[in-house]
Specification:
By secondary structure, the chain is of the alpha+beta class. Among the domains are: 88 residues, Distorted Sandwich (Calcium-transporting ATPase, cytoplasmic transduction domain A); 140 residues, HAD superfamily/HAD-like (Rossmann fold); 119 residues, Calcium-transporting ATPase, cytoplasmic domain N (3-Layer(aba) Sandwich). The protein is 50% helix and 17% strand. The protein is built from 24 helices and 22 strands. Helix 10 runs parallel beside helix 24 and helix 14 crosses helix 15. The longest helix has 35 residues. It starts with a helix and ends in a 28-residue tail after the last helix.
Length: 642
């Protein structure tokens, strides 16, 4: 009951009522109007009681030096002012403290919806094969050793090993890999991933909370629990502010014999400007960022971004556009030229639903390539396709698939296509009548602004690290283009987390930027998580501290400059508030200030801090952003740029 009343009084509506009562009290004093009851009593009751409740709770529940808080000092000053019948001074210090608490609370609220959406990715049912019969069972009934049949388009309900069939599995939910992975007998599949093409039978190896997807959920929960709430700067200083203030006030009373001077010292010593310094600067910075399409969820996030000395990037959808394009065409043998090869491969792939097939057909249409007559189309899921084109047998697929069907691949052609594999590019090998006729290579597209972003961060003494689930060749290829300082490839979500924790143990303040569900644990465990909010997963956005609303990574240098300026502004505000307090204490000891005038000076100092913070809102932090130079933009189509 007591806590409910405390929450009601400390809410925004009642705090505003207390502020209005203070204004009426000040007006009455200025006009020398005698009122039956001083309205400042209302401010004392509304804003002061929660302070007394808070300071008492900390004295009872906290241990050691943490018993002493800024709330305790202000409660003492408020009670002292009441004792000498200066209700305005008592109400003013209580109101400023309550206002600061409200402002700080507004900057630290964050929604936690991601876990529910992540749990929804787990299939509710599975198709179990027992004694040659199929039966649909609830996911909770699946046991280790069961054989499950997964049809094309279905999610895999448990971790397991393929015992029959071939397919391609979309693992992007867990690894972020941009392409489905071809899987065959003996290979592992993971819970929550999507079976794209063939029908497979899977023997279950892990179920329920032991599966890969639940491990991902658990990592997010654990990382969230490790996020400590931001301590108020005033409470950090309270351990010495309270004894110093009391000592000076007691000394003033014994030296002058004037109780008013002692109370004035307590009033002007109250750390209200310190309380306002951090949240007001952060609110101004958050407002500034919102205008630029950057959503900052908490003050802690902004402060940590200012301290960050390392930024880790996911690759697919973050560093790259997350869209496959034909990057290279190598015509060999019967393929007279690149256009003929493109037309041939696009014709065969036009019947396939594989992402590479769709990329070929899309590119062929963009290039105006003509599709030929096609017949006898057949697909072997996870391997390749074969069809008749103009009376000739055409095979398209992996190098392994072509060799399995005795396609001749001359060693002398290897020099033309082997570099594409070393670059980590996905490939389609094409053969006509059993002879290799060409290779098409595919690559994701590096964001045009990526290199400039990395360069600007380096100029601010920030190290850049690429963490990706893609192959080492692919990671090295893109890292070299963007000029990253470090690159780590082939990582599962838990391995990304391990890399970030290792950097943190080495004393680095780490930011992570990503867009997928698989990035959620890394975004949580990092000191600051930044999500791509436009194309990115809702789960990643909810797991993050900051969201880029237009998937514009060129905002990262802007965000870093804004965060640096915010931290500097907070430090400046704290220094100025301490100087104002020092001058006010000297004037209080000399009897120049009374509790009422001391409260007004104290209030003016708080307003000065708010004004300095407000200047952040209109400052330009984006003017030198090299990533926005449109004349430096490269084509999204690598072939067109050649």
């Amino acid at each position: 009951m007591l806590k409910q009343w405390n929450d009601f009084l400390s809410g925004t509506p009642m705090t505003m009522v207390g502020g209005a009562a203070l204004l009426v009290s000040l007006w009455a004093r200025w006009r020398e109007q005698a009122l039956p009851v001083d309205p400042a009593w209302l401010a004392v009751l509304i804003c002061g009681l929660p302070l007394i409740y808070l300071s008492a709770a900390r004295l009872i529940n906290n241990t050691g030096i943490r018993k002493i808080s800024s709330a305790l000092l202000i409660s003492i000053a408020m009670c002292a002012a009441i004792a000498i019948d200066d209700l305005f001074a008592a109400g003013e210090v209580a109101f400023i403290m309550a206002l600061g608490a409200i402002i700080e609370e507004k900057t630290t609220q964050r929604a936690q919806k991601g876990l529910k959406k992540l749990v929804s990715l787990v299939p509710e049912q599975g198709r179990r094969i027992a004694d040659g019969n199929e039966e649909m069972i609830d996911a909770g009934e699946i046991r280790v050793g069961d054989v499950l049949r997964i049809l094309p388009g279905e999610k895999i309900p448990a971790d397991g090993q393929i015992v029959s069939g071939n397919t391609s599995v979309d693992q992007s939910v867990l690894t972020g890999e941009s392409l489905p992975i071809d899987k065959g007998v003996g290979e592992a599949v993971l819970c929550g991933t999507l079976n794209r093409f063939g029908t497979i039978d899977v023997r279950v190896t892990k179920t329920g909370t032991g599966s890969s997807l639940y491990q991902l959920i658990r990592m997010i929960q654990e990382a969230e629990e490790k996020k400590a709430p931001m301590e108020r700067i005033a409470d950090k200083w309270a351990s010495w502010l309270v004894p110093v203030a009391l000592s000076i006030a007691v000394a003033a009373y014994f030296l002058t014999g004037d109780l008013v001077r002692a109370v004035t010292v307590l009033v002007v010593f109250c750390p209200c400007a310190l309380v306002l310094a951090t949240p007001t600067a952060i609110m101004a910075a958050i407002g500034q960022a919102t205008k630029h399409g950057v959503v900052i969820k908490s003050g802690e996030a902004l402060e940590n971004m200012g301290k960050a000395d390392t930024i880790a990037f996911d690759k697919t959808g973050t560093l790259t556009l997350g869209r496959l394009n034909v990057a290279d065409i190598v015509a060999l043998g019967e393929a007279a030229d690149k256009d003929s090869l493109l037309s041939l491969v696009a014709t065969v792939e036009s019947r396939s639903e594989h992402p590479l097939a769709k990329a070929v057909v899309r590119f062929a249409k963009e290039q105006g390539a003509q599709l030929l007559d096609l017949s006898d189309f057949q697909m072997q899921a996870g391997k390749g396709i074969v069809a008749q084109v103009n009376g000739k047998t055409v095979r398209c697929g992996s190098e392994k698939y072509l060799r399995e069907h005795s396609v001749e691949i001359p060693r002398e052609t290897e020099a033309q296509w082997a570099p594409l594999l070393r670059q980590g590019k996905a490939t389609i090998f094409a053969a006509v009548q059993g002879k290799l006729c060409g290779v098409l290579a595919f690559s994701d597209v590096l964001r045009p602004e990526a290199k400039a972003v990395v360069s600007e961060l380096r100029d601010m003494n920030v190290q850049t690290v690429l963490l990706t689930g893609d192959t080492a060749q692919t990671a090295e290829y893109f890292a070299a283009q963007a000029e990253f300082d470090e690159v780590h490839a082939g990582l599962l979500p838990e391995e990304k987390v391990a890399h970030i924790m290792k950097m943190q143990k080495n004393g680095r303040v780490v930011g992570m930027i990503g867009d997928g569900v698989n990035d959620a644990p890394s975004l949580k465990i990092a000191d600051i998580g930044v999500a791509m909010a436009d194309m990115g997963s809702d789960i990643a956005v909810n797991a993050s501290d900051i969201a880029l609303m237009n998937d514009d990574i060129s905002k990262l240098p802007y965000l870093k400059r804004l965060a640096n300026a915010t931290v500097q502004t907070i430090r400046l505000s704290i220094s100025l508030s301490l100087c104002i307090n020092f001058v006010a204490i000297v004037l209080s000891l000399q009897g120049v200030l009374t509790p009422t005038t001391g409260a007004l000076v104290h209030n003016a100092g708080s307003c000065f801090v708010v004004l300095i913070a407000a200047l952040l809102y209109d400052r330009n932090f984006d003017g030198n952003n090299k990533a926005h130079r449109h004349d430096a933009m490269i084509s999204e189509n690598p072939l067109a740029a050649r």
